Amino acid sequence: MKHPPLAPPLPSTRRRAGTPSMNLKELVMVAVAGEIVPPTQGSSPYRIGRDGVPRVVPGPGGIVISHRVGDPCVGLAADHLEPGVAVESRQRALKGKPNAANLALNTYACVGNAARVLTGPCTDQKGTVTGKHGGIDHVLVDFPDSVLRRLRIGDRIQIYSHGLGLRLPEHPELTLYNCSPLLIRRWGLRSAPDRLRVPVTHLLPAGIIGSGIGRDNSCRGDGDIQLSDPQVRRRFRLDRLRFGDLVAIRGADHRYGRTLRPGYTTIGVVVHGDSLKSGHGPGVVSLITGPARSLEPVHEANANLARILDLRKEGQIGRRPEPGRTIGASDRLDRLASALM
C-alpha cells in the first residue's frame, strides 16, 4: 500500500550570520487546500481599456503555461494574467460567509509555502506559493514546466501554510504579512543595528498604487501599480517589471491595511500581470512594512522569487521575446498545444 507523502519539515532555527532572527518556535504549520480554477468572464468578453478601446484577451484563472515567475509581466496580450496556476477553495461553509474557506486559504497561504498536488496525473508533484490576487481571491502557485503541462483544471492543491504570525525579534517596528520563513531565510536580508537591508529590483512611489489601496487588511489580495503615465513608466523602469520581482514602495503604510503615509515603506512582490483598465496594473502583495528609517531597500537586479526560491534555472529567468515574436507564440508552445489536442 502506498503511503501518502509527508508534509514538508519545519525549518531549522539555525541562521546565517547577519540574517534576521525569526520567531520560528511560535509559528504553526497548517494544511489548507483548494482546486485549480478556470478563467471566468462576464456577459461581455470585452475589456475596456483606459484608452477607451475594447479588447478580448486572456484574464486571470486557469493554468498559464507560457509564463512563470521570472518572466516579464508588462506588454503582454493579457489582463491581470496569473502566472502558474490559480487556486481557489470552492468548499461552502456551513456557517458564516459561503466563501469562508476560500477567505481562509487566501489568509493562510504565504509566499514561499510548499504546495502539493492531491489529485490527477500530477499527484504528489510539488509547487510553491508565489502570491495572491485580490478581488478574484486566488492563490497563485508555481510548478515546474513539466508539471504545468500535465495539470488539469479541477486538480486539488494542498498548501502547507507556515508564516502567519511571523516576526523579526531584532526589528520589532516592522510588520510582516504573507511571508514564509523560507522566503525570509533565502531573500538575502541583512540586519543592521537600527534597520533591515532588503534587496529589491525597483523603488516606487506610493502614489502610483491604484486598485487595492484603502483595503482594511494586507494579508489578502494586492495593490496594483498604475502604468498609465509614460513618464512615470520610464522614470521608474516599470516596463521591466517581472512576475516575482521584490519591490519597495515609499510612502506606503500597510500595517493595518493599504494606506498612504509619509515616512513609511512597504516591501512587496509582483504577483500578476499588467491590466488594460484604469487604476489597474501589475499587482503587488505586501510582505514587510514599517517606518522608512527601519527599512533600507538595496537595489539588486536578481531580487526575484524565481532565483530566491530556486524555482527556475538562471538562464530561464527574465527571458525576453525574440524580435518579431511574442513569448506566448513560440513554436514550442504550438507543438505542445497540438500534442494535447
UniProtKB/TrEMBL annotation:
Ranges for region Disordered: 1-21
Coiled-coil stretches: none
Domain DUF4438: 46-184, 187-309
Source organism superkingdom: Bacteria
Family matches, as Pfam families: DUF4438, DUF4438_C
Annotated InterPro entries: DUF4438_C (IPR048399), DUF4438_N (IPR029433), TM_1086_sf (IPR044909), TM_1086_SG_dom (IPR044910)
Bias kind Pro residues: ranges: 1-11
Gene3D superfamilies assigned: 2.40.10.170, tm1086 (SG structure) domain, tm1086 domain
Protein name as annotated: DUF4438 domain-containing protein
Species this chain originates from: Thiocapsa marina 5811
